[in-house]
Design brief:
Layout lengths: L30 H11 L4 H20 L9 H11 L9 H10 L15 H14 L3 H15 L9 H11 L5 H17 L28 H9 L6 H15 L4 H6 L5 E2 L4 E6 L2 E6 L2 H13 L22 H14 L7 H14 L4 H8 L4 H4 L7 H7 L9 H7 L9
Antiparallel strand pairs: 1-2, 2-3
Helix pairs in contact: 1-2, 5-6, 6-8, 9-10, 10-12, 10-14
């Protein structure tokens, strides 16, 4: 390894930090100070900054040896460099490790992996999903995946009922089959409306049996709730964040997407309210005292220099907004740590509804807190209100009360034989 790539220790110290400990030669000369400042702004600690600068020096030397300018970089050259680096280094050997440097150089888009070329029909269908349906990125990607699988073997004008039935049989038994069938109907409706198919093939796709309110909401018992909340170590910054997240989900019934969408501007301290955004609606909920204290404890530890107004941040640099998947993972780990083998963020939401019901809240009040569009969605929680159900149950007559049982019997409509 070229000794010029090794970190050079700064014997005089100074305020340069990690920047002065790494020398960068070649096309990257001059990156050091600006790149280090950018990493420090994003919350990287000095050892991580040193590692990133070492990667920058290594990459710059590789470019210099091959006479490659920055504006000549391509995805293929990035792959060649990573393949060359992996047997020589033990860390930062993937594209993810190179992302901070490429982002700083403004090369993220130019060297991004090429997206698979989509057919004209897929592009038109994607525009339909964006402009007319207004679907989220996640749902749109799912619909496009089903559409691409369908068009891989057939052109839209060539589709027949038999082709659709065969495609449905391939989907049966796969995970999330009901959502796949829904996406398939959407694609076929689009083809028919666009005039590509003469008959509405969406009617060929069967509906899966789905019994509404056939299962009971699985809320947690009070002891389990305490164990879940205790799983967050509030002595640390991450633990303070996790505790505030879990408390919002188990006390107010917030969804993971709603927790991830919270910003500093959504906290109305004067009125003691929280603005909640989710599922296409905006609402206000009261901020209980325990939630307010938990959020304040987290804000005191939250990085004030984070370049985002999001309330909850990632646990590691770069400090960006926590994603929905991170919130879901956080809730799942807390449940596992409390000894609850199954469930995630939605189980905490069920727990919030169950706790309100046990304290005497009506279904209408619970629907308002959970922000249900229809009261029928909230009605499922009536099944877990054992005290009220017990009052409605009629006592079973004693087995020796023959007279009472005979009085309950109805005469046979056909009369005596």
């Amino acid at each position: 390894m070229d000794p010029r790539l090794l970190p050079a220790l700064d014997r005089e110290g100074g305020n340069m930090g990690a920047c002065s400990r790494v020398r960068i030669n070649g096309p990257g000369f001059g990156w050091s100070e600006g790149f280090a400042a950018e990493l420090r702004e994003q919350g990287y600690i000095e050892p991580s900054i040193r590692n990133q600068l070492g990667l920058a020096a290594h990459f710059s030397q590789w470019l210099e040896e091959r006479k490659i300018a920055l504006d000549e970089l391509t995805q293929e050259l990035i792959d060649q460099y990573l393949a060359w680096r992996r047997p020589r280094q033990r860390q930062l050997r993937s594209r993810r490790g190179l992302t901070p440097l490429l982002t700083y150089l403004g090369l993220t888009e130019s060297v991004a992996p090429a997206r698979p070329e989509r057919s004209g029909w897929l592009r038109r269908y994607e525009r339909h999903l964006v402009e007319e349906r207004g679907l989220t990125d996640r749902v749109r990607a799912h619909y496009l995946t089903v559409a691409a699988d369908l068009l891989a073997a057939h052109r839209p004008a060539e589709l027949t009922r038999i082709d659709v039935s065969r495609f449905v049989r391939k989907l049966l038994g796969k995970p999330n089959c009901q959502a796949r069938l829904s996406a398939l109907r959407s694609v076929l409706r689009f083809f028919h409306v666009a005039g590509e198919t003469a008959i509405p093939l969406a009617s060929v796709v069967p509906s899966m049996t789905c019994w509404r309110q056939s299962s009971l909401p699985k809320g947690l018992e009070p002891a389990q709730v305490r164990a879940v909340l205790a799983s967050a170590d509030r002595r640390t910054a991450i633990g303070s964040r996790n505790y505030a997240v879990l408390l919002l989900m188990v006390r107010l019934g917030l969804r993971a997407c709603e927790v991830a969408a919270l910003t500093l501007d959504d906290l109305d301290w004067a009125r003691g309210e929280i603005v909640v955004r989710g599922k296409g609606s905006v609402g206000r909920l009261p901020m209980p005292v325990d939630i307010g204290k938990a959020v304040v404890a987290w804000l005191r530890r939250r990085r004030r220099t984070a370049p985002t107004r999001s309330l909850f941040l990632r646990g590691r640099a770069p400090y960006r907004a926590a994603t929905v998947s991170a919130i879901v993972t956080l809730a799942g780990r807390a449940l596992r740590g409390a000894g609850v083998p199954t469930g995630g963020g939605h189980r905490l939401r069920h727990t919030a509804a169950t706790m309100m019901l046990r304290r005497g809240a009506s279904l209408t009040e619970i629907a308002q807190v959970l922000r249900h569009r229809h009261i029928n969605t909230t009605a499922i929680y009536a099944k877990v209100d054992r005290d009220r159900l017990r009052a409605l149950a009629q006592p079973w007559p004693a087995t020796d009360d023959t007279v009472g049982l005979r009085a309950l019997a109805q005469p046979w409509p056909g009369g005596a034989p």
